[in-house]
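[step 3/7] fold_predict: job queued, chain A
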Amino acid sequence: MPTKIINNISHAIPYRLIYFLLASVFLLNSCYYYPSEQVVAQPTQNLQNNTAVTQIYFYPNKGQSTEQQSRDHYFCYNWAVEQTGFDPSASSIVPEQRVRVVPMPPPGHDTVVMSIAGAVLGALLGGHHHAGQGALIGAAGGAMAGAISDASRAESARQLEEAYQNRDEARDFHNEKRALQFRRAMSACMEGRGYTVK
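[step 4/7] structure written:
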């Protein structure tokens, strides 16, 4: 009789331990990581382009003095800002920032975790006699599922980064358009006051 109790206890402990480990693996595997966004300030040519587009060179046609040239430039600058709503010297023009989306956890994480979970599950389902074969089959299946999950997460991060890039390109196009309008207004004003503008 005591040997039956010892045998029952020895069989009950491994199964409880196995179920605990299996539950732990599935709980840890079910944690989902959302793509992480990183704002990266990159030196770009956008602000330099706006400066180059809005910068004009003017030459007096009527022999205007230096003081008159300064007054005319000041007046035309303010008039162009008023007409276009764009001020190239305003500090409200934010420095160029790009958003970089990084899939979290890193690629390959799900492949490893799912292959381990599949191996454990395969070994449990294979039983005592076929645990090794079950572990191999489970690891292969888990690795395939993990690779699909990794690829899906990377694609989601790529699409999100592409959406941010499209938004930034639209903003850049809008700023360039306003800078050109400012240049036209400034040039028209200076030409009206007797200057050659280039």
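[step 5/7] annotate
Strands lie at 36-41, 58-60, 97-102, 195-197.
Residues 131-192 form the longest helix (62 residues).
exit 0
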